[in-house]
Design brief:
The protein has 145 residues and is of the alpha+beta class. Helix content is 23%, strand content 36%. The strands form 2 sheets. It has a 6-stranded antiparallel β-sheet with strand order 1-10-9-4-3-2, with no helix packed on it. A 4-stranded antiparallel β-sheet has the order 5-6-7-8, with no helix packed on it. The longest helix is centred in the first third of the chain and has 33 residues.
Length: 145
């Protein structure tokens, strides 16, 4: 009788351990897929955007600043302004709307003026500005320290 109890207890541990290992083998890849590893981006201090004469007045171009999108706007007066192109509301990419003269977020109709200030919609704060440097004909954008 006592030998049966020992066998039963042993089988209980083996079966319980096997089920736990099986659950771990199924759940670990699912959890690893849902939570991808963080990748470090290369530290970027300055990016060459293009030539001054390539960008017409009252237009914009998009660029990459490291892993983040950026937007360079050339105003009607020919002044350059650059910002991080992610909306401060939900990180959607913004774009320059030439017809209404604002930087616009299509996700929730957020609007920013050409100084990056939020003027309507849900964005809670202004766009992050970049420093625009003109060297000869070349346009560079760098972070403001």
């Amino acid at each position: 009788m006592e030998v049966d109890q020992v066998k039963r207890k042993f089988l209980k541990y083996v079966l319980g351990g096997s089920l736990t290992a099986l659950a771990a083998m199924i759940l670990y890849p699912i959890i690893a897929y849902l939570k991808p590893p963080k990748t470090k981006s290369a530290e970027v201090s300055s990016v060459k955007i293009g030539k001054v004469n390539e960008i017409p007045n009252d237009s914009s171009i998009m660029f990459r600043f490291g892993t983040k999108p950026g937007i360079l706007v050339k105003t009607q007066s020919g002044e350059f302004r650059a910002f991080e192109a992610t909306c401060t509301h939900l990180d959607c990419t913004v774009q320059f709307k030439q017809d209404i003269g604002v930087i616009w977020c299509a996700c929730h109709n957020g609007k920013f003026d050409l100084n990056g200030r939020n003027i309507s919609g849900p964005p809670p704060r202004p766009l992050t500005p970049y420093k625009v440097i003109i060297q000869g004909e070349d346009i560079f954008v760098s972070k403001i320290l």
